[in-house]
Amino acid sequence: MIDADLLRSLGVDPSQLDPAPPWAPRAGAERLDGSHPCALCGKPATATGAVTTPEHGRRWLDRCMPCLIATTPRGGGPRAPLADTLAVLREAAQEAGATMTIRTDEPEPAAVDRYLLTLTIGARTIMRGWWSDEATAERKYTRWIGERGGVTGARITLTDEQDGGRVLKSWPPENG
Predict the structure, then answer these.
(1) Residue 168 has what pLDDT?
(2) Phi, psi values for residue 102, rounded to 5°
(3) What tens digit of pLDDT does each residue of 93-139 get?
(4) pTM (predicted TM-score)
(5) How far apart are alpha carbons 59 and 42 in whole angstroms?
(6) Coil, helix or strand for 127?
(7) N or C: which end of the chain has fewer CB within 10 A?
(8) Taking a C-beta distance cutoff of 8 angstroms, is the pair 140, 95 a contact?
(9) Alpha carbon distance 4, 152 (integer Å)
(10) Which of helix, strand or coil describes residue 169?
(11) DSSP per residue over 22-81, as a string?
């Protein structure tokens, strides 16, 4: 990502940044004295670097550590498939007991919602989880039995949603 794109993605106006001197070793260390605000949140900056744009030349981009970490472009390594990322987010929300709607700019692959795991107590659905991989869904099924199966009236069901909701496994067993 070029500096102008970085600033645009952060919503930072380069004309509002302090001019930076030409490159020098350890340039910017003197700026970390607590007197320069983070360009994003306004808290005292704990990290700084120079960015260059054609219109404004070299400028200081001061950020606090949380903003630096949150806004540093990640690259170089392979990106996790969207389906895996969504599955992790869904599981975290379920474990926290939170309701969450996920919106992305990419269409979600249909396989993400293939295997549905449901925990009900009585007539009430308590938790749901979706996985694209059957082996993962079966591991979660076993884990849920161990973690939640002791609750009176608990029922845990694993279904294949791409096969019309066919029940693959159900606990406790019907005749048990």
Answers:
(1) 95
(2) -105, 125
(3) 888 887 777 666 655 554 457 899 998 888 888 888 888 889 989 99
(4) 0.42
(5) 17
(6) strand
(7) C
(8) no
(9) 59
(10) strand
(11) SP-TTTTGGG-SS-SB-TTT-SBPSEEEEEEETTTEEEEEEE-HHHHHHHSPP-SSPPPP
Q: Please tell me the distance from the alpha carbon of residue 46 to that of residue 64, in angstroms, as a whole number.
A: 5
Cα separations (Å) of 74 from 28, 51, 68, 71, 84? 23, 17, 12, 9, 18
Q: What is the pLDDT of residues 72-84, one digit of tens each?
A: 766 555 566 677 7
Element (H, E) at 93: helix 82-96
More confident: 43 or 150: 43
- Element (DSSP H or E) covering residue 83: helix 82-96
Q: Which amino acid is at 15?
A: S
Please list, in sequence order, all residues whose beta carbon lies within 8 angstroms of the beta carbon of residue 160, skipping any fewer than 6 positions away. Answer: 114, 115, 134, 166, 168
Q: Is 30 exposed, middle or buried (0-12, 13-18, 19+ CB in 10 A)?
A: exposed
